[in-house]
């Protein structure tokens, strides 16, 4: 599988997980979320949970995985 197809499948899987959380917990008010992963995943989770689940912005915590070129 080429890298682009793998990346697209990975993003679709993450989007599916966000939808599953939203379906199981339509309100995240009174909760905290800790997300880790690629920056695009973190941004999607933040956007989805704040807009659709009433998660307070100050209750969203994250660590984005970033990469550098080899040898840097």
Write up this protein.
By secondary structure, the protein is α+β, with helices and mostly antiparallel strands. The chain is 51% helix and 14% strand. The protein is built from 2 helices and 2 strands. A two-stranded parallel ribbon has the order 1-2. Strand 1, helix 2 (39-53) and strand 2 form a beta-alpha-beta unit. Helix 1 (3-24) runs parallel beside helix 2 (39-53). The longest helix is centred in the first third of the chain and has 22 residues, at 3-24. It is flat, with a radius of gyration of 14 Å.
Provide keyphrases for this structure.
51% helix, 72 residues, single chain, alpha+beta, flat, 2 strands, two-stranded parallel ribbon
What is shown here, in short?
With 72 residues, the chain is of the alpha+beta class. It contains two helices and two strands.
* Cα gyration radius (Å): 14 Å
Mean pLDDT: 83
Binned, the helix content reads 40-55%
Please tally the helical runs, counting DSSP H or I stretches of 4 or more residues. Answer: 2
Low-confidence stretches: none
